[in-house]
Amino acid sequence: MARSTSKDAQALFQSLRSAYVATPSSLKIIDLYVCFAVFTAIIQVVYMAVVGSFPFNSFLSGVLSCVGTAVLAVCLRIQVNKENKEFKDLPPERAFADFVLCNLVLHLVIMNFLG
Amino acid sequence: MAAAAETSSDRTLRNAFGSVLSFFILLLIGVLAFSIRLFSVIKYESVIHEFDPYFNYRVTQFLTKNGIYDFWNWFDDRTWYPLGRVIGGTVYPGLTLTAGTLWRILNSLNIPLSVETVCVFTAPIFSAFASWATYLLTKEVKGAGAGLTAAVLLAMVPSYISRSVAGSYDNEAVAIFALIITFYLYIKTLNTGSLFYATLNAIAYFYMVCSWGGYTFIINLIPMHVLLCIVTGRYSSRLYIAYAPLVVLGTLLASLVPVVGFNAVLTSEHFASFLVFIIIHVVALVYYIKGILSAKMFKVAVTLVVSIGLVVCCAVIAVLIALVASSPTMGWSGRSLSLLDPTYASKYIPIIASVSEHQPPTWPSYFMDINVLAFLVPAGIIACFLPLSDASSFAILYIVTSVYFSGVMVRLMLVFAPAACIMSGIALSQAFDVFTRSIKFQLPGISGKSEFDAGDTSSSSVVAANDAAKPDKSEETLKERPSRKNKKKEKEQVEKASVEKASTKSKKEKRLLVLPLEASVIALLLLVFLGAFYVVHCVWAAAEAYSAPSIVLTSHSHDGLHVFDDFREAYAWLRHNTEVDDKVASWWDYGYQTTAMANRTVIVDNNTWNNTHIATVGTAMSSPEKAAWEIFNSLDVKYVLVVFGGLVGYPSDDINKFLWMVRIGGGVFPHIKEPDYLRDGQYRIDSQATPTMLNCLMYKLSYYRFVDVDGKGFDRVRQTEIGKKYIKLTHFEEVFTTHHWMVRIYKLKPPRNRIRGKTKKSKTKTSATSSSRKSVARKKNPWH
């Protein structure tokens, strides 16, 4: 039983990797960016847990900035992914412009909130 | 081929014609929405109405005079004496900022309007915007025809009129517009999957948070819809784009508003959105992995992930529950709790229960406020189910939740009204669609396109002959068809089905829905009558029921029209005859008006943030004269204002509110007991009244010298003769009573020169009577 599950898991990883290798490199860059943003958010949460959340607005804006960037990047990734049929008629340039606009709003708000 | 080209060019022509027509219809709807709310200005005058609007007006005045920075830092020492109130941090600034900006723009264009005028007309302007927003929202749900119908209905729905007549300068005036536009942008994002609309959606949500506490409805309804979509297997990446950025941006923007601040992440009202935020990420990941894996491998992955995921989920839920449980009242504010448990307020918070608009509504009020829409709503719900899309499921969820909330609080009927309008708009437009189509098919004549046209013109002539307000309906049906066909085609495109198949399919559907000619003509006539009835009712409600400003009253009697302008008379007296720093005590209802109109410091006002302070005033009003004098004197009060309707029959006066003063006072100071004021559980003021009642300050101040009017002291509100006719005041003196006795102002007499022996005696007496009373007295004046 245990052996079969581990074998299954191995096969799963294998197929996951092979599937992921096939994705275009632009999407991989976005993935890296998302991972980086999430990682930064986690570091901040850990720091908050260790040191304390005193300037709460700073903590909040830091974490939400990271989470927000990650979320927006995921949205961009969804939109520029060629395999998504829903966004066939959305040119990637338009998607990127929307992404930049959304990021601008997000970081204007964060700068305002940072205090 | 040529025929196809011809039809397509014909269709584009028709589309262009339709969009021009709908533009003009929308313009007219805006004019209608604006002008139906002007009855109050025409019948009365251009004044601010009621209570809360006066506060908003005063804040707007401050904003326009001192600028935005002073506004954020405004500490108001004219209310809640001696505590004061930080206005900038405790007020929803959306309405004030909107009106202030409007005034500034107008002034920079050299249109010299006063601040008051701008404030009076803010609500009608925004109700026009709201009906346009309704058009957009319903168009996203069910096409342009339904949108136009819903916009017409919303422009004159009585429930919304009651809160947005000219002069009703309250938060709800702009908040309903913000609510609808937020929903529209959410649906738009959901339908298009564009980040641009998601950004706009977050900004609209920000405007909503700025303007009304009801924003929690949005931040709970949208997660509910997302959850519903996920559970019913309608997850799409558009849903992710519509929701995830909204939560992050919305939370950040909400915490920018001072009155919300960190509450946007700390209170339970917002937790649902975060939970769904996590869930949607998990679901998105699952769908992504499902997309790149084969079916068999996915099954393996599911078994692996589910076992790990369950553990993580349990941990997260445990942490959340611990967080929620650690905060007092489980992190819910009193008003939200009273929404979830309708009996909560009456049990624990008399101050919320005492406001009439927080009571549950009665059945007639549904008929009064939404009229025939109540019967059309179920049809609209069914129409939403017929092809169930993401947008229509949102509309259904919106109406279901808002029906519940409107059943809990009368005030929330306002949230229900737009949903009812959208549903009824859908129902009416679908019904017209079906009937006109079946007429078309049965008219004797030619096949194909000419049939279409004949049907349309005949139906429009039928409609136009009946009601001038209705021709837009037939245009809608005309317009709606191509748009819906387009939509259908879009769907079909995904399945790679041919256009011909779609057209045959829709034709088949049409054949199925054909009704007998006579039946559909009669049904059309009846629908038009229903619409006409609705219009008549709305105009009546706007003209008669909802446009009274409540600071000026009128009454028709056999010898003509009487105008009671007593409130402004009294406030003007206060303004001109008292010192600038004098403190005026009254029940909290009149606090905002006193500060705004008389510019005098008040003890409590309609903000009701400090229950103890209100209870102190309630205790003073229900105490005997001497005790009341002591309380008022310790609060530095110079004048006491009571509202008395016994002479003219004005029912919402202080004597009728008196039991709430007793209850609220007794909730904090236990020596005030409600049964002392009731004879056998009955509240009465005639000779059967209890001695406590007859000796309390409110009774004395209301009925002082009242017997001089007619010799009997007949109270026309309570329809009895008063119990104690000859009242002597020892600690108060009457200084002003208005023309119809509706407002009476008393002055506290200065303390008498004391004889040493006498004070000693009285002191020993009080200490001897009871120690509990003394502790109460200490509790009364913590600032002494």
UniProtKB/TrEMBL annotation, chain A:
Keywords from the UniProt entry: Apoptosis, Endoplasmic reticulum, Membrane, Transmembrane, Transmembrane helix
Keyword Transmembrane helix: yes
GO BP terms in the entry: protein N-linked glycosylation
Regions crossing the membrane: 30-50, 56-76, 96-114
Record-linked InterPro entries: DAD/Ost2
Primary location class: endoplasmic reticulum
CC terms in the record's Gene Ontology section: oligosaccharyltransferase complex
Pathway membership: Protein modification; protein glycosylation
The organism's place on the tree of life at top rank: Eukaryota
Bilayer disposition of the protein: Multi-pass membrane protein
Pfam families (UniProt xref): DAD
Keyword Endoplasmic reticulum: yes
Locations listed in the record: Endoplasmic reticulum membrane
Record family assignment: Belongs to the DAD/OST2 family.
Subunit annotation: Component of the oligosaccharyltransferase (OST) complex.
Function of the molecule: Subunit of the oligosaccharyl transferase (OST) complex that catalyzes the initial transfer of a defined glycan (Glc(3)Man(9)GlcNAc(2) in eukaryotes) from the lipid carrier dolichol-pyrophosphate to an asparagine residue within an Asn-X-Ser/Thr consensus motif in nascent polypeptide chains, the first step in protein N-glycosylation. N-glycosylation occurs cotranslationally and the complex associates with the Sec61 complex at the channel-forming translocon complex that mediates protein translocation across the endoplasmic reticulum (ER). All subunits are required for a maximal enzyme activity.
Identification of the protein by name: Dolichyl-diphosphooligosaccharide--protein glycosyltransferase subunit DAD1
Taxonomic path: Eukaryota, Viridiplantae, Streptophyta, Embryophyta, Tracheophyta
TrEMBL record, chain B:
Main location: endoplasmic reticulum
Superkingdom: Eukaryota
Subcellular location: Endoplasmic reticulum membrane
Region of interest: Disordered: 451-502, 753-784
Pfam family, one: STT3
Compositionally skewed regions (Basic and acidic residues) per UniProt: 469-502
Molecular function in Gene Ontology: dolichyl-diphosphooligosaccharide-protein glycotransferase activity; metal ion binding
Record's compositionally biased regions (Low complexity): 458-468, 765-774
Entry keyword annotation includes Ubl conjugation: no
Residue span, Oligosaccharyl transferase STT3 N-terminal domain: 20-423
Ranges of biased composition (kind: Basic residues): 753-764, 775-784
Transmembrane segments: 20-42, 86-106, 118-137, 143-161, 173-198, 204-228, 240-265, 271-289, 301-325, 366-386, 393-410, 512-536
Name recorded for this polypeptide: dolichyl-diphosphooligosaccharide--protein glycotransferase
Catalytic activity, as annotated: a di-trans,poly-cis-dolichyl diphosphooligosaccharide + L-asparaginyl-[protein] = N(4)-(oligosaccharide-(1->4)-N-acetyl-beta-D-glucosaminyl-(1->4)-N-acetyl-beta-D-glucosaminyl)-L-asparaginyl-[protein] + a di-trans,poly-cis-dolichyl diphosphate + H(+)
Any Gene Ontology CC annotation: endoplasmic reticulum membrane
EC number: 2.4.99.18
Protein topology in the membrane: Multi-pass membrane protein
Pathways per UniProt: Protein modification; protein glycosylation
Cofactor(s) listed in the protein's UniProt record: Mn(2+); Mg(2+)
InterPro entries for this protein: Oligo_trans_STT3 (IPR003674), STT3-PglB_core (IPR048999), STT3_N (IPR048307)
Family: Belongs to the STT3 family.
Assembly and binders: Component of the oligosaccharyltransferase (OST) complex.
